[in-house]
UniProtKB/TrEMBL annotation:
Its cofactor is a divalent metal cation. It comes from the Eukaryota. InterPro entries: HARBI1-like, HARBI1_dom. This is Nuclease HARBI1. The keyword Protease does not apply. Keywords: Hydrolase, Metal-binding, Nuclease, Nucleus. Residues 176-341 form the DDE Tnp4 domain. Belongs to the HARBI1 family. It is found in: Nucleus.
């Protein structure tokens, strides 16, 4: 078959076409009224009590107040605006505002729902949710570093004072714990390293928290098949402590002239070290040692509760992650920890039903580490005597 003949055009038509200026069709203005649309669409599908309180509803969906949300937007705005917005439009053809992009990312992290479900709630496609969430994670990881850092000496003195006031432990700098982030992996990526004792594929997260359950240091990216004691020893924090560059500042002189160094409290899964104090392990302990274990457990519960709040608030960490990119997962975990700290730093009160009702590592038994450093044992014995002396001194005569 012969190709179709070209239609003949008059000189007038060709001249008219030549003089036309080709103006690209641009999307409408940015979607600035995203919250009204989102609230109208989604408030009725959740707890009925939310329908009358937009402020509480906002925190329900995004885990932070509107004021904190605006602050988060200010941190990432430059990055989200400067990058080409190719494809970032909703079903009405409007560009996604920075606020809507942040809302999509926060909802994805807070709910742990699929990208399809989150996209449906905002009127965008799955690929947009994926692209927006990752852009947000990259931006916040870079722009919010100051919300997760080791305290300077003045701040550390405040932390130690608050912990002693609450638990009676002098010179204590925080609590440490670890948790598993469970995931599924493609067959080609499975290995014994990533398979933990509960036969789940997982990635470990270790965190050190202060008296307000703010993360001071985290370590992640390591396979869940490791023990928490092994993870500790692989961390840069361990190397700094062993080299005298962390937890080695002000020595505290107790009554009787006995000195006590800085330290953390941790569970039986950790080694007993001069700067990491674990509880006594046997039954039938003397009353003074049982009392120490109770105080130690209360202080250590700060880290346990912090992880329950972290996983309860940013539930993407509490659900089984479907074939995540193991190179990107540490960034997702870090950003959730940054958001946890930002909420605390902003004074946002956590809604009572957000934190996990059970343990943050439900189903995992605590492995016992048998490593005992003699200096660590000495520090622990000093703390037992100090608590006993404080109790006797405070008792009415």
């Amino acid at each position: 078959m012969a190709p179709p003949k070209k239609s003949k055009k008059s000189k007038k038509d060709r001249k008219l076409k030549k003089n036309l200026s080709l103006v690209p069709v641009e999307p409408k203005a940015a979607d600035s009224d995203w919250w009204d649309s989102f609230w109208q669409k989604n408030s009725s599908t959740q707890d009925t009590s939310l329908s009358n309180d937009e402020e509480e509803g906002f925190k329900y969906f995004f885990r932070v107040s509107k004021k904190t949300f605006d602050y988060i937007c200010s941190l990432v705005r430059e990055d989200l605006v400067s990058r080409p917005p190719s494809g970032l439009i909703n079903i009405e053809g409007r560009l996604l505002s920075v606020e809507k992009q942040v809302a999509i990312a926060l909802r994805r992290l807070a709910s742990g729902e699929s990208q399809v479900s989150v996209g449906a709630a905002f009127g965008v496609g799955q690929s947009t949710v994926s692209q927006v969430t990752w852009r947000f994670i990259e931006a916040l990881e870079e722009r919010a570093k100051h919300h997760l850092k080791w305290p300077d000496s003045n701040r550390m003195e405040e932390i130690k004072s608050k912990l002693e006031e609450a638990f009676g432990l002098p010179n204590c700098c925080g609590a440490i714990d670890g948790t598993h982030i469970i995931m599924t992996l493609p067959t080609v990526q499975t290995s014994d390293d990533w398979c933990d004792l509960e036969d789940n594929y997982s990635m470990l997260l270790q965190g050190i928290v202060d008296h307000e359950m703010r993360f001071l240091d985290i370590v992640t990216g390591w396979p869940g098949g490791m023990t928490v004691s092994r993870l500790l020893k692989c961390s840069g924090f361990f190397k700094l402590c062993e080299g005298g560059q962390r937890l080695n500042d002000n020595v505290r002189t107790l009554s009787g002239g006995v000195e006590i160094r800085e330290y953390l409290v941790g569970g039986v899964g950790y080694p007993l070290l001069p700067w990491l104090i674990t509880p006594y392990e046997s039954n039938g302990l003397p009353a003074s040692i049982s009392a120490f274990n109770a105080v130690h457990g209360a202080a250590r519960s700060l880290a346990v509760t912090a992880f329950s709040q972290l996983k309860g608030t940013w539930r993407i960490l509490n659900k089984v992650m479907w074939r995540p990119d193991k190179r990107k997962l540490p960034s997702i975990i870090l950003v959730c920890c940054l958001l946890h700290n930002i909420r605390i730093d902003s004074g946002d009160i956590l809604q009572p039903d957000v934190a996990l009702s059970g343990h943050h590592d439900s189903g995992y038994g605590e492995q016992c580490c048998r490593q005992v450093d003699l200096l660590g044992r000495t520090v622990r014995d000093i703390l037992v005597k100090h608590l006993l002396h404080s109790k006797q001194t405070a008792a009415p005569k």
